[in-house]
């Protein structure tokens, strides 16, 4: 068995080390998570004093907004942890009680499915919020038929993409078994 030339070995080590160029991006995602937390707290602080005078419809919209932010933060966390572990380095935090059970087990295919599922959920919540605002003059933005049609179409594209991705993963897994 022959050894690789030194130049080739050094080149491959350099390529492998280049994965660390992703580390600042994951740090940026952590900063983005902090930004979402600030926005969540700001929204909560704005609406809590209004809770006794808020209509039922408005309270549902507020809750949907908070859920939307939470799902976006969950998605960010999944991408942050899984992406770092899959593409940069394993997180050496030990087996603490707080360690999420999915950490270290989500591969690229699983990350892709979690990502599309989260996008579909976020899109669905956004669509539901817009449907609840139909006919309300106090809505932040007035959506007409055209805008609502686009929102539904985009949501259906996300759903179809998720179904197709799941079907491809299923076919791929099935072909590996054969």
UniProtKB/TrEMBL annotation:
<dbReference type="InterPro" id="IPR005134">
    <property type="entry name" value="UPF0114"/>
</dbReference>
<keyword id="KW-1133">Transmembrane helix</keyword>
<feature type="transmembrane region" description="Helical">
    <location>
        <begin position="60"/>
        <end position="81"/>
    </location>
</feature>
<dbReference type="GO" id="GO:0005886">
    <property type="term" value="C:plasma membrane"/>
</dbReference>
<dbReference type="InterPro" id="IPR020761">
    <property type="entry name" value="UPF0114_bac"/>
</dbReference>
<protein>
    <recommendedName>
        <fullName>UPF0114 protein GR167_06735</fullName>
    </recommendedName>
</protein>
<keyword id="KW-0812">Transmembrane</keyword>
<feature type="transmembrane region" description="Helical">
    <location>
        <begin position="148"/>
        <end position="171"/>
    </location>
</feature>
<feature type="transmembrane region" description="Helical">
    <location>
        <begin position="20"/>
        <end position="40"/>
    </location>
</feature>
<dbReference type="Pfam" id="PF03350">
    <property type="entry name" value="UPF0114"/>
</dbReference>
<comment type="similarity">
    <text>Belongs to the UPF0114 family.</text>
</comment>
<feature type="transmembrane region" description="Helical">
    <location>
        <begin position="111"/>
        <end position="128"/>
    </location>
</feature>
<keyword id="KW-0472">Membrane</keyword>
<keyword id="KW-1003">Cell membrane</keyword>
């Amino acid at each position: 068995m022959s050894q690789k030339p030194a130049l080739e070995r050094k080149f491959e080590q350099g390529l492998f080390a280049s994965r660390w160029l992703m580390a600042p991006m994951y740090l940026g995602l952590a900063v983005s998570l902090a930004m979402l937390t600030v926005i969540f707290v700001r929204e909560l602080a704005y609406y809590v004093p209004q809770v006794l005078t808020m209509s039922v419809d408005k309270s549902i919209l507020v809750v949907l907004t908070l859920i939307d932010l939470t799902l976006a933060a969950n998605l960010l966390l999944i991408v942050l942890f899984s992406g770092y572990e899959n593409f940069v380095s394993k997180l050496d935090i030990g087996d603490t009680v707080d360690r999420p059970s999915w950490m270290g087990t989500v591969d690229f295919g699983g990350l892709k499915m979690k990502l599309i599922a989260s996008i579909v959920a976020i899109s669905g919540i956004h669509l539901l919020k817009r449907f609840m605002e139909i006919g309300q003059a106090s809505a932040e933005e007035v959506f007409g038929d055209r805008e609502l049609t686009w929102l539904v179409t985009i949501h259906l594209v996300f759903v179809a993409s998720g179904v197709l991705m799941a079907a491809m993963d299923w076919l791929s897994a099935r072909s590996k078994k054969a």
